[in-house]
Amino acid sequence: xxxxxxxxxxxxxxxxxxxxxxxxxxxxxxxxxxxxxxxxxxxxxxxxxxxxxxxxxxxxxxxxxxxxxxxxxxxxxxxxxxxxxxxxxxxxxxxxxxxxxxxxxxxxxxxxxxxxxxxxxxxxxxxxxxxxxxxxxxxxxxxxxxxxxxxxxxxxxxxxxxxxxxxxxxxxxxxxxxxxxxxxxxxxxxxxxxxxxxxxxxxxx
Length: 205
Prior knowledge:
Largest sheet: 7 strands, antiparallel
Shape: elongated
Number of domains: 2
Helix content: 10-25%
Number of strands: 16
Low-confidence stretches: none
Structural class: alpha+beta
Oligomer: single chain
């Protein structure tokens, strides 16, 4: 135009930048494993894990095992909280949907309760800080944990002999990636066109 060096209708902004990334904690599919120590949360909530420094971490990965002391631990050896100890020689382990842990001891037929698994939830789970190995830490953005028995106060239930699989739809993710790539190509061509227009305007002033 006569009053500016930019072509008519062109607006130059400051670009874009990444503010944050968020994890998607929507329910994943449930897969049966047959392992009595595998637990899947169906609904909202996280297992509570005691870290070596005494802090609590949180996870939805319920692939647990029993250590030499009979404690229920993660694959990395971190104990589940509240602590659950399986007596040596227990013939079977039963974990209810409400997190009640019971075992049948030698010489007995009736199960004995040995612990209670509790879950934690947050006002803003996407604000949890990733720690690695499927562990998450409380942060100012997540808020304080609200704990309780599975199935109470909006918390999900626990499924024994099951694990939660990924909640990512691979096919849909590929489609989204292709669409994003095409949008990028279109924007690149638009930028190249604007650059040519600016160059033309500069050379023909």
